[in-house]
């Protein structure tokens, strides 16, 4: 990578420095030579490798994976001014030059994923050379392998070909690598996860919040599905279904953790941990999701805080009319997922806006929540199995898994028959079951339906901006470049390309 990637800069400092004129590492100086000495050191290091997941899920993933789809949009506030970085993502209008983009959210996603990679590379390079309890060592190593694979899976889906760093960066010259083809990146992800699975404990034997065997299997199944390796996906995912470690929560709304309770519940396969308070472990993604301007009085019933405050600016991640219309009549998930709030300060004639209710959990401190972000849950495992079986010509077997999800939602069994009908039924079910969980863009992308879905969606917004939260004010319309960049991948970050000869 480059000098702006903190993890690789730290790695460079740790692994180089004074060796040209000193042969002894000062014992009082923190470095890879003095730190990685025992079990506690490696456990602290793997804890640090989880940390960027908070920034990714709180600030980035919903922009790049949900608002960059037909599920959510932004609520235009003409008094706030330009917010081009967010709007460009939602409007599929990110400017590119020579395959690069100056979009700050794209840049920060890149950097956070490579920060995970740099930290896990440190662990994986050194851990086998240090003796400590084998079970503990296997657990740490398995977590590091999972986290590196997860970061690369994000990168390959966002960017396609990316630099494949597998060892710590020791010099400035090593920081820039050529782009590895997608197939090579996927092969490394598979290798990491196949190595992680036998090292990781099952959920019932693992500390809450840490990755497990089931999480590694689910991620690997997702990786196989992206490559249409259906039989491999079935083989790796079946033990998750038969393990007895997971089950659907009886109530859909209870599948999502509260501010301080219901975390890592029986449906949770892997979730990013947050903690309300002043320790720096908190999140605020639900505040970023709210339509604006919203007054303290309008916000308080949703958040339950004792110190609510007005929030101005431009609302992001607002459910579109399209996703609301996608719920079938009687689907219990709609009321659990989408709420409505009246904004007295809105310029729109219809001042009632939808918001993402499924993530809105009561808490005590304004703009400070401890609500975990669920990355994988058992309902998606069931939908993965349905898709895997259907793509192998077994729509009848697929229906059994699909119907488990539909039954909890209060819906009748699917009427789909035949592979093509079942494929569409599963695709639609994923949309409503996993709405606002940052899955929609990846589903559209991996099924090659970008032109089919996003172009007409954009045309609807351009033709009817009032339906998509634009106020009835002159000039408050989609920009001229809206929906002109429907690329499968994001362009590479310009700030990074300035420091690399390879893109």
From TrEMBL:
Alphabetized CDD domains for the sequence: SusD
Localization in the cell: Cell outer membrane
Lineage of producing organism: Bacteria, Pseudomonadati, Bacteroidota, Cytophagia, Cytophagales
Keyword Signal: yes
CC terms in the record's Gene Ontology section: cell outer membrane
Residue stretches making up the RagB/SusD domain: 351-457
Superkingdom, taxonomy of origin: Bacteria
Descriptive protein name: Tetratricopeptide (TPR) repeat protein
One Pfam family linked to the record: SusD-like_3
Keywords: Cell outer membrane, Membrane, Signal
All copies of domain SusD-like N-terminal, residue ranges: 20-224
Record family assignment: Belongs to the SusD family.
